[in-house]
Amino acid sequence: MSVYTTEIASDKIPSDNVIHQRLLAAYFQAKPYIKGDLLELGCGEGRGVELLAPLADSFIGIDKIKAVIDKLEKKYPDYKFMSGVFPPFPFEDNSFDTIVTFQVIEHVKDDEGFIKEIHRVLKPGGTALITTPNIIMTLSRNPWHEREYTGDELSELCKKYFDKVEMKGIAGNEKVMEYHERNRASVQQIMRFDIFDLQYKLPAGLLRIPYDILNRMNRNKLKETDDELVKSITANDFKLADQSEQNLDLFCLLTK
Known about the structure:
- The protein starts with 16 loop residues before the first helix and ends with a strand.
- Helices cover 36% and strands 21% of the residues.
- It is of the alpha/beta class.
- The protein has helices spanning 17-30, 49-52, 66-75, 111-121, 151-158, 174-191, 204-225, 227-232; strands spanning 37-41, 58-63, 80-83, 96-102, 122-133, 164-172, 238-242, 249-255.
- It is globular.
- It has an 8-stranded mixed β-sheet with strand order 3-2-1-4-5-8-6-7.
- The chain has a single domain (14-255), classed as Rossmann fold (3-Layer(aba) Sandwich), CATH 3.40.50.150.
């Protein structure tokens, strides 16, 4: 059984390529920061395991989808994987030198507890890397997300527990931004039918199925309209940039 929705982008679905490469880019940008014992919170299908785990002394990945964890355990027998819902985390204080958690915090109801737990299990001098969508660049409400952040909002949340917080972002080049603007125009065409602004008024649970259907239709449409653009974008078309409202994702570095 497939776990893929449009929220869980796949490297196997051609119309998902741009989103997949955007998510993959964060792992490439994280490589210089990886050291010692590494924890990935929300490892998903293991998109970044082959990039990051060999750089660490040890690797643990945790995710709530047990079927995915079972597959990862078979695929990567040298690394440890766990299924579970967090926070809290099932680890001792000061356990990890590096923590990565990409596109996860927006799904966590207790985001402050999440940051507090990251601080607790991170070793003194350790680094945590967080990515999440930049709400300023979001095209519509995502009913799978508890909330989204500006760079300043996420910084303020993290500063409650970390003294050193550096906010950067994942930015796209001209090809990426061309796709983004085409996506924006296409989404606006769909949203013109939402005359009562129901996307912001209805409970998230009622919106997830229609959101997924419309999102899939939209991605397929964008691929059919310009297949070469969609296929050509790779992780190299994204870069780590200074904080800006134009970044697609926030990339936050925390040092304990």
